[in-house]
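SAMPLE LOG
Freezer: B-3
Tube label: C17
Construct: single chain, 214 aa
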Amino acid sequence: MKNIFLILILFFATSITIGQTIYIQSGVSNSSIDWQIFQNLKIFNKSLIGHSFFIGVDYLQKKYFNLSCNLGTLRKGGSDVFQYTDEFGNYLFSQTQKATADYISFNTTIDLKYPIKDKFIPFVSFGPRIDFLVSNSIEFKKLKDNNDLYKLNSGINFGLGIKYKISKFLFGLRGDYLMPFANIADYKTVVGQPDKHIKDKTFLINLIFGYQLK
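STRUCTURE (predicted):
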């Protein structure tokens, strides 16, 4: 995994040297997970609002498309409300708990755009993504200790947004759906029972701040 990470860092650094526009993207992630404990019981399947921050660069820019590389960090996970009772089953209180997993994320995309009067630039983008797990909350600790929480995830980013250009500066807003290729965790329960799986559904909303270098 370290070799993959180093190769991606080198690729990103190379992209910066040939880049034509550099970006900062900052915003939030909206994530939930499908964690089925029993047949009719799922936990942490409510939305969790986390962070999203990327540094990116566009290169091979043409009028209607360009390539883009982005490196940053994001949070996946979910939240849930648990009720606590005393030994007689009487309700005591409710508490919201969050299961979180933080990743360093790298993606490279092709952006299809349609400039309007050389000022407004609506676009759609898609491309592969790799996420490296860097930290997690205690809710995932047992899974991580058993090597059931995957350190490496991959998928495809599907995004759309709009940019506004003022001289060499660009401002905008974008949204992305992070389609996963696999689960974030798979684990066994008891002998004779099927394996359990944890899937995530994550969206990003980011503000865009850019500067045209060339």
